[in-house]
Amino acid sequence: MKPPARMTKARLFRLSVVVGSIFMILLIIVYWDNVGTAHFYLHTTFSRPHRVLPTVLKEGGQGPLSEVDEFLETLLSADLRQNVDLGRKTEQPPVQASSRPVVENLEENVRGYDWSTRDASLILDQEKLQAERRRTLRDFCANSSFSFPTKERLFDDIPNYELNHLIVDDRHGVIYCYVPKVACTNWKRVMIVLSESLMDQGVPYADPLDIPREHVHNTSTHFTFNKFWRRYGKFSRHLMKIKLKKYTKFLFVRDPFVRLISAFRSKFELENEEFYRRFAVPMLKLYSNHTSIPTSVREAFEAGLHVSFSDFIQYLLDPRTEKLAPFNEHWRQVYRLCHPCQIEYDFVGKLETLDEDAAHLLQLLKVDGLLRFPPSYRNRTASSWEEDWFAKIPMAWRQQLYKLYEADFVLFGYPRPENLLKN
Questions:
Q1: Distance between CA atoms of 361 and 306, rounded to whole angstroms?
Q2: Element (H, E) at 248
Q3: Confidence class of residue 334 from pLDDT cuts 50, 70 and 90?
Q4: Which pTM value belongs to this model?
Q5: DSSP structure string for 163-211
Q6: DSSP readout, 47-68?
Q7: What is the C-alpha separation between 233 and 253, in angstroms, rounded?
Q8: CA 147 to CA 309: how far, in whole Å?
């Protein structure tokens, strides 16, 4: 007995819908397999006006993605629309009610903050400044006569573990590469507020300075590129490239030698148990010929035993250091943390102009009405201190150190410190 014509048509309609859906999914997968090679350009074009940056996302967490990209993200993560920060809220550490951070660490000393307002007439011509910084990066990355390790590799060649400094905020379409010792604590706080990735009694933090320092640096608090593989598998690189093309990418840098001095001050002049055990003890044994070394940093400091700046420089120059493990992030070169020749940054801020740069960036992101960047320190490590710090460092060591960090000097427009490198 033949089925009624109406039932046959219904079945054919359902079958065509299923076949059509499967075809669309296969078509999208083929598109994705091609998007990372022939049809996708990693770098954001410099021909577009840089003043037009991604705006604040619409309520509900809809990202600045095309319809196809939105469908792909939905396909890859069924709960994306319910959990806009890609699952981070399920990973966050428990946070107790808190006010501003307790002032115990020198780096958190609120008395060092500059709370004064800024006269708009004193703000630098940021658009020209940013264009110059981007041009410097672009020119030296394209200059075949200027080379440094990893310069020529492609984005796809960067291991996932080297992408752990790229923090993603899908709510506002922002990617921040953090560089330790360059106001990264407060920029991480800003990213937490924007992405709403951390709660205080069920409510997202609204003031960056309310976020306790111990949670700011907890890796589970931030969604970084190196976590994409765990969530998206083989699609992770494709998603990274889409976000790199469409999101606003920024980083902050500072004079490389001054950054080293700042790292030494905070990690070896203050009582830091982790850095004492991991780095200070080996330095004292290798470069100061100490044989009987206290087991704790408190005992060492009470005995007047400290790592010297000279010990630290020898450690950096010692070829055995890199053979054992990559540089710690606090003194690892910026080009190794943020890959500026593989990722074309839209905004390059500098610690030397932090207040102006931060205010301008928040305006460009159209989030200046939501928050303000925490005021900077008055007592930051000053560039003028370099000669004093390097006074006891042999000239040959200084020149070797410059070669080690030369790419950071050149790429980010810092002049060669001739006063330190000439006899």
A1: 40
A2: strand 248-253
A3: very high
A4: 0.75
A5: GTTEEEETTTTEEEE--TTSSHHHHHHHHHHHHT--EETTEE--SGGGS
A6: TS-TT--PPPPBTTTB-S--HH
A7: 32
A8: 29
Q: Which residue has the tokens 């206290």?
A: 294
| Count of Cβ atoms closer than 10 Å to residue 145 Cβ | 5
**Torsions phi, psi for 349 (to 5 deg):** -95, 160
**Cβ within 8 Å of residue 268, ≥6 positions away:** 275, 276, 279, 280, 306, 307, 312
Confirm if 305 and 290 have CB atoms less than 8 A apart. Answer: yes
With a CB cutoff of 8 Å and minimum separation 6, the contacts of 396 are none
Q: Which two tokens stand for residue 368?
A: 């200046």
Q: Give the pLDDT of residue 390.
A: 96
Spatial separation of the C-alpha atoms in residues 15 and 148, rounded to whole Å: 58
Residue keyed to tokens 């976590």: 227
pLDDT digits (tens, 9 = 90+) for 202-250: 999 999 999 999 999 999 999 999 999 999 999 999 999 999 999 999 9
- Among residues 298, 163, 130, the alpha carbon closest in space to that of 243 is found at 163
Torsion angles phi and psi, residue 377, rounded to 5: -80, 140
Residue 88 has pLDDT above 50, yes or no: no
Q: Which two tokens stand for residue 318?
A: 């010692």
Pairing of strands 174-177, 248-253: parallel
Kindly report, residue by residue over 278-287, the tens digit of the pLDDT: 999 999 999 9
How many CA within 13 A on the CB side of residue 364? 24
Helix (H, G, I), strand (E, B) or coil at 46: coil
Task: Specify the residue for token string 């390097």.
Answer: 390
